[in-house]
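Q: Synembryn-A, please. Structure only.
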Amino acid sequence: MYNKIQKTRIRDKKDLDIIITDERLNIILLKADLAAPILPPYTETTLEAVKLLCNLIYNSPSVQIQITKTDCLKNLVTRISNYDPTVTNNIMLFDMRILFLITALNIPSRNICRNEYNGDKLLVDCLNNLSNRLSSSKEVVEVICELLKALYNIYIDAEETTKEQSETNKRLVKILYRLLTLEDVKKLDSKELQSGIADLLVVIPYTSHGSLVPRISPENKSSEVFEDSDMSAIWELVKYLNECLNSRENLVKNTLPAVSALLKLAKNNRCIRKYARLKVLPPLKDVMKRPEEGTTLRAKLCKLLTFPIMELRVAISEFLFVLCKKNVGRMIKYTGFGNAAGMLANKGLLGGNQPETNYSSESGESDTEEYAKYKENINPVTGCYENPKPSPLEGMTEEQKEYEAMKLVNLVNKLSCDGIIKPCTVGEDGKPKPIEHVFELQKGLNLPKNDSDED
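A: Structure for Synembryn-A:
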């Protein structure tokens, strides 16, 4: 009855911080079997109480502070470590939500959970057990998704300082590999699960990522093999990214985890980078269309290089740049200068600048016959072939050329003075540098000494 009264009152968030006193919170924890370490089985009262507690933590800043002064977190981690078949999916679901909310809303609780309560190891154990039950119930998928969110919070600020933590991380990555590649799991087609895995891969130390691409052996066979490594998990992430790009609904929310995960994996693992490049930026054959045109994964990503939301645009441009081994010329070849200009400007890579990298100097590719055939007529700005066009200056006298040039200068200067455009040159730092007058654009040009006005 107490739970029902509190559930009714919590629907009205007004004065919630006043209503939920320390005494009342302790009663709720008692009903939720979180006031002390209580072993299963649990009752319907337990379920109603954890639902109530979950809502309270979410809606009340006061409870968010109060809860950290209790043993709730400690007892919750202990309970999770003692799950048995009698514990219902609903109780597990709300347990994980409570853990997620506490670690999301109270930053110090993350290290407490990890270091004092051994939360990372216990949650990985729980994830391993739940992953073996995935094929039996879609409800288990919901629990795992909440568990992955809690793990994300625990790992986001964590450092790999001990051998035991390193082993836990590698075991976690092996479980994520299994969740990505098992046929029973793939049949569930859970986008939320794939998103949670991608998010978690971003915060797990990169030194543990090797478990995601195990070596091929008689016991471990795969249809996706590259350089004697099993690339099944990476292929699933690439396919997930492609599916996210096909849906315009919640584009940023859905796409960012996949791009961020693939970026981190490619940046820190040579084999993954080379494999991902084959899937995302295969050897260039179709040069008749702009890079952003078409239905290929490359086209979909290039289209977002000019996307208005910076977070996604930056992640995608960095991912493609890493696949190109941070080679400016190669980036322009695959995306077109027009699409890559924003990223190059932000990085100070305009004007032919090239960043220092740790990548090998070998190119890893040669031009395809199709690309080599049309290379001379590929416009680097648009990134595609253009039919040869007659020069607009053809047939003009030198006086006419000079007249047209001055006419253009005056028009550009007027647009600049009216604030419609802002002409720039490339500064020494490789970034755009505004100019005061259009005649400054002549600086740096290789002009004949005897006639500085000629093009």
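A: Brief note, in case it's useful. The beta strands are 225-226, 229-230, 378-379, 384-385, 424-426, 432-434.
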